[in-house]
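Incident log entry.

Two folding requests arrived from the same account within the same minute. Monitoring flagged them as a possible duplicate submission, but the sequences differ. Recording both here for audit purposes.

Request one:
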Amino acid sequence: MLAFILRRLIQALVVMLTVAFIAFMLFQYVGDPVTNLLGQDATPQQRQQLRVDLGLDQPFPVQFARFIGNAVQGEFGLSLRQGRKVSALMVERLPATLELATVAALLGLLFGIPLGVYAALRRGTVMSQLVMTGSLLGVSLPNFLIGILLILLFAVTLKWLPSFGRGEVVMLGSVSTGLLTADGLRHLLLPAFTLSLFPMTLVLRLVRSEMLEVLRTDYIKFARARGLPDRRVYFGHALKNTLVPVITIAGLQLGSIIAFAIVTETVFQWPGMGLLFIQAVQFADIPVMAAYLCLIALIFVTINLVVDLLYFAVDPRLRIERSGSGH
C-alpha cells in the first residue's frame, strides 16, 4: 500500500512540474510583461529597471526555480488586467466554481445511477429506449447549446429562473455560497443542470453496460438459484460490483467538470474561475492564465490520487494482486 501511494505521489509530482513548466513558458513567449505593465511609452531605462525588479534578467533555470517556489506558496504575481494579486482573485472565484461543479457532479450521480440501473433492468422497454435516446442527446449536444436552449425556455419564455449571475450569497467565514439562499439556488439550477448533463449521461451509459455485464456472471446466477429476492440480487450484489468502475469515472469527471466549466460559466456569466480565465485570455493576462493552469492540474492530480486509493480500497482483487506480486 505504501509503495502504491509513493508511486502515485511521484507521478503526481512529475505531472505538476510539467504543467508548471508549460505555465512558465507562457511568461516567456506569450506577450511581454514589461510592455503590459509599463505600456509603449516607457523609456528604455524604465523597462530595464522593471526587468531587474521582476527578475527577468536572470538565467532561465533561475527564473523557473523562482517560479516554482512562488507557485508552491500560491503566488503568481499581479494580474495585468486588474492590478491585483492573482492569488486573491483565485480565492474569490474558487468557491463559485467549486459550488457549481459539486452540485453538477451530485446531479450527475443522483440521476445517472438510477437511470442506468433502470435502463439495464428494463432493457427493451419503451421507457428504457427513451432513456438511452436521451443519453445520446446529452453526449452529443455541446454545453453552450444546451445552456442557451435552457435560458430560452426557462428564463425568456417561461420566466421561471434567472439567466445569468450567481444571485444572493452569504459568507461562511471567508467563503461565499449561494446554497443557503433561495435566490442563490434559483441562479444555480440552470448552470448546474447544464454542466451535469454530460457526466450524467456518461454515468448512465456506464452503469447500464456494467450492470448488464454483472447480471450475466456466475455468482448472480448462483444468488438467484439460492432463492434470493430480485431486489437483493440487483441492489445488494449486482449494483455493488457495478459501482467499482463508476468510482473512477465519477472522480475523473469531477475534475473535468471543474476544468471545463469555462463554457458554462461564460454562457451564464457565472463569476467563477472559468469566466476569469476567459477574460484573462482576451486581455493576455498571463499570470492569471498560469495560475489557472496550475490550479486545475493540482485539482486533477489530487482527485486522481483519491480515486486510485478508493479504487484500491473498494476492489479486493487489486489488493490480492499486489500482495501476491509482493510475495
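Request two (distinct sequence, not a duplicate):
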Amino acid sequence: MTPTISISRRSLLGLAASTLAGAALPAFAQPEKPVRIILPISAGSGVDVIARAASPALTKTLGQPVIIDNLPGAGGITGAAAVAKATPDGLTLGLFSNNHVINPAVYKKMPFDAVNDFTPISVIGATPLVLVATKSLPAKNVKELIALLRAKPEEYNYASSGNGTVIHLAAELFLDQANVKARHIPYKGTGPMVTDLIGGQVQFGVVALPAIQQHLKSGAVQAIGLCGAKRSPAAPDIPTIAEQGLPDYDIEGWFAVVGPAKMTPADTKRVHDAFVKAFESPDVLEAMNKQGNVIKPTSPEEAAKFFRSEAARYAALAKKANVSLD
C-alpha cells in the first residue's frame, strides 16, 4: 500500500514562496551598477545641460542607471583628476570640453597628464562660439571692430568667462590674427560676463552660442561673427569671422567622453557605441539642435589624435598670449 504523504496548506505556501524566492535570486544577485559621468564644471553650464539632456537616452543605451556628478574646481582639474584616479571598468567616465587640453598649457602644475592618463572614447560634438559686442559699440562686423581697435589701441575691453578658458583664448586668437589689442576682463563664469556685456561695462567678447542666443534675438547684444569655420544651422544669418577677412580663424567649443587610462578595448567600444547611439537618437538630436550643438561623434582613435592636436594648438596659443596660471 502506497503511503499517504500529508502536507499542510501552510507548508505548501511556504514551499512555494521558498521556491519562488530561490528562482528570483539570480536576477537580483548582481544588480546593475550605475555609470557615474563626472562633469568638471558647475551645474547649469554648457556641458552640464548637454549631459542632462542625454542622460535618459544614455540610461537606455548603456543598460545601466546614469549618475551625473558635477565636480567643479581649479578650471576643471578637480573633476578630471577624479576620472583619472577611477577604476578603468567603464563605470566612471568624464564628459569634458576644450578646457581639459587647455589646462596643461596654462597651469604651471598638473596632477595628471591630460592625454596619457585617460582613455579617449569619442569627441561627441561641438558648440558654436560667437564673437559678440555690446549694442552701443559702433562696430557691426569684423572689419569695423578691427578698425575701431586699431584707431584706439588698448582703449576697449573684452570679457571672458575666466583666465585660461577656451572663451579667453578664442578672443586672444582673434586679437592676434587681427593684429589689434584690447584689455582682458576675466569673469567667474559666463553668467556675469554676459550681464556686463548687455550692460555695456565691457565692449566685446566670445560666448558660446547657446548662452547668448536669446540676447542676440532680443537685440540686447550684437553678433560680430561666428568663430567656427562654417556657419551654424542654429544661427545661419551670422557670418563667420573667417569669411569676414580672417580666413585662418577657426575655433569652437567641443565636448568629449573619456574614461580613466587602461580601459579595455571591449569596455571602450561598449561605452563608445552607447554614447553614439544615445546622442544620435531623435530626442537627443532635437535637444542638441535647439541648443545650437552639432553632433558628430568620432572613433576612439580619432578622439586620441584630436586631443593631441588640440593640446599642441592651445599650448602654442597660450604661450603666444602669455597666459599662465598658478
